[in-house]
Amino acid sequence: MSVSRRDFIKKNTLAGLALAAAGHLNPLFGAEADIQENAGNSVYFDGYTRIGPRKYKHPAERWSLGHLQEEMNHCSISGALVASTLSVNYDAMFSNLELSGQIRAHANLFAIWNVMPHQTGEFPDPVELGKQMKLHNVRAVSLFPHTNEWDWKDQASHELLNWLSKNKILTIVNAGEFGGMSPFNEFLTKYPSLPVYLINASWSDQRYVLPMVASHRNLHVGFDNFQINEGIEYFYRKGYIDQAIFGSNSPTMSAGAHRAYMDYADIPAEARAKATGGNLTRLLHGLKPPETKNNPNDDILMEAVKNGKPIPVPLIDMHMHMLNEGLNGAGWGYRMENGGPDKVFRLLKRLGYDGGGIMSWNGVVSHDAAGGNISAKKSLDLAPPGYWGLANFDPTHYSQEELKIMIPKMYEDKRFIGMKPYHYYGVEYQDPSYDIWWEYGNKRKFYGLLHNSRSDLFEAESLAKKYPDVRWVIAHAGGSYQMADMAIAAMKKFPNIYAEITLTPVHLGIIEYLVAGAGEDRILYGSDLPMRDPRQQLGWVIFSRLSLPVKKKILAGNALKVIEPCLADLPAYNRPKLTKG
Predict the structure, then answer these.
(1) End-to-end alpha carbon distance in the chain
(2) pLDDT band at 581 (very low <50, low <70, confident <90, very high)
(3) Residue 265, SS3 per DSSP
(4) How many helices (H) and strands (E) does the chain have?
């Protein structure tokens, strides 16, 4: 039987009235006592999750309310704001009410409603919207002016935006919906009293976002994709901790990845409590989860992360860059807080690292291979035990004759056992101009880390066949399910191909997917630090559903298999000493 939009809204309005009569709803604006009570509470209250169908979804991608609940319970997330894709992709108010009905039985879930101007007759005016929000205990809204095609600058939009601002309704936005960071800055300036929560900003947006955080105290930032190195510490040091929000974008992303960022935050407990939930409760006028959730089945790794302790089992990172000492900038659109060896190694010690492979940043992304090799050597000079190097060589800037001299000269430094080309060099890796390097590495049983320059993995497969004594590691294999499918297929064809996981999206379930497809012996932990903070990448593995023995393989055991053929020539200082666990 079909149900009209009017009947659906009427039905859900009556349901909201029943809840209000039962005493389960707070007023639209909570009491100050509620806000103050939460100030010392370290509960994890997720500021942004999203459920519902979406286009171009991979069959393995998580998307449902059940997926969200499972992840929250597994990662000890006590409560969450929940958005629905349908509120954006179908009739907004119909889907808003549907969302509220869907989560009504879950006392720790609170709806985010998508709102828009009312003049076209599709959406309630602000007065009616306020009544509906009060009935359904909705304390946060989202704006999608670009996707839903309305103009936030137009006079018709002012009534809604002024109402949100006047009532201090938490408004969750993506800067892309305003046309980019500059128009978004205009929006913040025009509505200085509106509490705004920015989601989906990238770590590459720092030069836009950080000045805006300083200028607009109504701006609050989540770290879902804003995975900046030592970002939470930066917010605390600069006095912005009241503007930091824990938000995971689960179940698309791993909630465990994002809580690890907070669990390992090197800030006072009171400040951490603000970021993990206190700030959100304040912005929601006292709303908070009814109880603190704690997973009683944590393994020793999850337990260590939740207590901010070093990982108690061997830990090797197969994808690390390093800036020159003292630098925070890396050219292009990249900023890496404390990206030099001293501060990076200090952070890694707190996490419990035992070693890993170091390469430069300038040698790849800045396409200065020779300068990058110098930087990598300097980083290794400052490294604690257990770290080794990967060299860079560029066949477009240097002739074959020059490479014939440069390659063996570089590898006279026995700390280097890896090969790291890069797609910015402009030549596919199976091109003959690279052969001189690959042949040298094959004879010495080096390994190579490959960021593919094509949309497929033909390069890795070609090299694996031609150079069987090299272990070819596919970088960023966990970046998407499509990439994971290609990596799985490549690993099934060639026993000397491995897959390293790192990338910003930290897809929930994809590490398990890689293991299920290719086996547990060829998946490797890597972080891409300090471009991204390593804590999200580490938490992604730790809070996976894999067994403890399999996690141990990904965190270190499989890496040892990759470097084992090189260990005899690697100086003792640079060999990981795996005495834990």
Answers:
(1) 60
(2) low
(3) coil
(4) 24, 16
Q: How far is CA 422 from the centre of its chain?
A: 23
CA distances from 249 to 75, 143, 200, 265 (A): 14, 16, 9, 20
In 458-496, at which residue ranges do the beta strands (DSSP E only) sit? 471-474
CA separation for the pair 354, 376 (Å, rounded): 18
3-state secondary structure of 79: strand
| Cβ burial 38-72 (10 Å sphere, 16+ → b, else e) | beebbbbbbbbbbbbeeeeeeebbbbebebbbbbb
Q: What is the phi/psi pair of residue 74, to 5°? A: -65, -40
- Give the CATH fold of the 5-283 domain: TIM Barrel (3.20.20)
Residue with tokens 């698309």: 252
Q: Residue 24 — very low, low, confident or very high, per pLDDT cuts 50/70/90?
A: very low
Structure tokens at 242: 């009241």
Whole-model pTM: value is 0.93
Topology classification of domain 300-573:
TIM Barrel (3.20.20)
Instruction: Supply 24's token pair.
Output: 């389960």
Structure tokens at 147: 């996707």
Per-residue pLDDT tens digits for 350-389: 999 999 999 999 999 999 999 999 999 999 999 999 999 9
Question: By the 8 A CB rule, do 415 and 570 touch?
Answer: yes
pLDDT band at 42 (very low <50, low <70, confident <90, very high): confident
5-283 matches 300-573 in fold = yes
Q: Report the run of H or E that residue 356 belongs to, with start and end.
A: strand 355-360
Instruction: Give the length of the chain.
Output: 581
48: its two tokens: 């942004």
CB 317 within 8 A of CB 527: yes
Spans of all domains in the chain:
5-283, 300-573
